[in-house]
C-alpha cells in the first residue's frame, strides 16, 4: 500500500483548473519532452476518455503544450502555451480518439522530429497532478520505472 504525504492530499502548486487535466497533463508533456528532446516540429496529441471529452474546457490542450515547451505546472505562461508553441514554429494537433482499455485520462503523443523520424509517448494523468508514462515507441513502461517517479 502506498504511503501518502500531506502533499498528495493538498495537490500540486499549479495553474488550474484541474490537477488531473491541467497539472498532470503538463507533467506528461514535460516528461515526454525529456524523453524525445527538443528537436521536434509537430506534435499530435491523441486524447482518450475524459481527456478527449473535456480537453478545451479543463485546459488539457494548453497544459500539454506547456509541458512540451518545458514549463512547470505553475508557470503563468501555461495559459498561452499553444500560442507560444506556434510562435516557435511547432505545429500542435489535438485528436479525440478511443485508445481502448487505457486509463480515462490518457494521451498518446506523436512527436515529428526535425530529422524526419517520429517518437511516440503514451501516458496517463492519474489524479492529484500525478502521471505515469505507459509506453515509449511501442515498448510498455513499468509503472514503477524511474521515469514515473
From TrEMBL:
Keyword Protease: no
Family indicated by similarity: Belongs to the iron-sulfur dependent L-serine dehydratase family.
Domain Serine dehydratase beta chain: from-to ranges: 5-79
Name of the protein in its database record: L-serine dehydratase
A GO biological process held by the record: gluconeogenesis
Pfam family, one: SDH_beta
Pathway where this protein functions: Carbohydrate biosynthesis; gluconeogenesis
Keywords, alphabetical: 4Fe-4S, Gluconeogenesis, Iron, Iron-sulfur, Lyase, Metal-binding
Cofactor: [4Fe-4S] cluster
Keyword Iron-sulfur included in the entry's annotation: yes
GO molecular function terms noted in the UniProt entry: 4 iron, 4 sulfur cluster binding; L-serine ammonia-lyase activity; metal ion binding
EC number: 4.3.1.17
PANTHER family documented for this protein: L-SERINE DEHYDRATASE (PTHR30182), L-SERINE DEHYDRATASE, BETA CHAIN-RELATED (PTHR30182:SF12)
Catalytic activity, as annotated: L-serine = pyruvate + NH4(+)
Amino acid at each position: 500500500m502506498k504511503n501518502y504525504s500531506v502533499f498528495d492530499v493538498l495537490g500540486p502548486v499549479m495553474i488550474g483548473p484541474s490537477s488531473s487535466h491541467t497539472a498532470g497533463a503538463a507533467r506528461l508533456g514535460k516528461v515526454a519532452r525529456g524523453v524525445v528532446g527538443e528537436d521536434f516540429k509537430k506534435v499530435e496529441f491523441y486524447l482518450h476518455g475524459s481527456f478527449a471529452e473535456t480537453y478545451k474546457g479543463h485546459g488539457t490542450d494548453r497544459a500539454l503544450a506547456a509541458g512540451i515547451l518545458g514549463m512547470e505546472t505553475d508557470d503563468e505562461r501555461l495559459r498561452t502555451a499553444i500560442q507560444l508553441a506556434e510562435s516557435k514554429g511547432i505545429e500542435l494537433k489535438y485528436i479525440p480518439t478511443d485508445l481502448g482499455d487505457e486509463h480515462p485520462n490518457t494521451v498518446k503523443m506523436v512527436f515529428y522530429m526535425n530529422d524526419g523520424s517520429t517518437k511516440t509517448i503514451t501516458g496517463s494523468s492519474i489524479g492529484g497532478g500525478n502521471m505515469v508514462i505507459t509506453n515509449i515507441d511501442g515498448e510498455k513502461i513499468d509503472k514503477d520505472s524511474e521515469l514515473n517517479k
